[in-house]
Specification:
Bound molecules: pyridoxal-5'-phosphate
Order of helices and strands: HEHEHEHEHEHEHEHEH
Helix content: 40-55%
Number of domains: 1
Largest sheet: 8 strands, parallel
Number of helices: 9
CATH class: Alpha Beta
Oligomer: single chain
Low-confidence stretches: none
CATH topology: TIM Barrel
């Protein structure tokens, strides 16, 4: 090995993931357009993200506000219809910048953040679509509201803060059967009348679609392994 990065054909990978998504949706009795593919370009150079936009893809996920701004402000100047989802933790001091940049924020998970989002939406008169992140594995080090607190937190966001919560998001523990977590997330969404379900990554997006995912977040299967920092 000479350490050179492997060549990645982003357009071909995208086509493969989209075909697998459509097949999984059909197998679950759903239509392909019921599932939005969020192409996770975090950790990759702008050139790789650009390859996906040039191949016609328009919905992307990033996990850091600063990195997303550097990569996407120029790309969005050329492709104004590109849509950005924040899929990483959001600090309250970054709320203003995140709301200016992202179309969807998938990681709403604590009262202080909900209050900050409400304050900024009152100031600017609009708010991105929001997903509440649920820590379905109840992992202490992980972001997300515990399942037992989800109903109350969703109510706080919607009723107290009037925030546009459209769904729930989860990241199952890597060493557990993801289906259990997808089922749990779907159950919490159902009893709260939420239509959106952001779940499933490169290793398990077909399972997630079977359990009702409306948004899958796929990075590695499209862009290759993320370079180590
Ligand atoms: C990185 C990341 C993904 C993409 O994971 P892959 O395994 O590369 O598909 C999805 N969701 C979140 C929240 C992530 O941080």
């Amino acid at each position: 090995m000479d350490g050179a990065p492997p060549t990645i054909d982003v357009a071909a990978n995208l086509a493969t993931v989209k075909a697998r998504t459509a097949a999984a949706a059909r197998a679950a009795g759903r239509t392909a357009d019921a599932v939005t593919l969020v192409a996770v370009s975090k950790g990759h150079a702008a050139a790789r993200a650009r390859a996906a936009v040039e191949a016609g893809h328009r919905v992307f996920g990033e996990n850091r506000v600063q990195e997303a701004a550097a990569k996407w402000l120029p790309l969005r100047a050329a492709y104004p219809d590109a849509r950005l989802h924040l899929i990483g933790p959001l600090q309250t001091n970054k709320v203003r910048e995140a709301m200016a940049l992202f179309d969807v924020i998938e990681t709403v998970d604590r009262p202080r953040l909900a209050a900050a989002l409400a304050g900024e939406s009152a100031r600017i008169g609009r708010c991105p679509a929001l997903f509440v992140e649920v820590n379905t594995g109840e992992e202490p080090q992980k972001a997300g509201v515990p399942p037992a607190d989800a109903d109350a937190f969703i109510a706080l966001c919607r009723d107290t803060h009037r925030l546009p919560v459209v769904g729930l998001m989860c990241i199952p523990p890597p060493d557990e059967e993801p289906a259990l977590h997808f089922a749990l997330l779907a159950d919490i969404a159902r009893r709260n009348g939420l239509a959106g379900l952001s779940m499933g990554m490169s290793a398990d997006f077909e399972t997630a679609i079977r359990f009702g995912a409306t948004h899958i977040r796929v990075g590695t299967a499209i862009f290759g392994e993320r370079p180590a920092h």
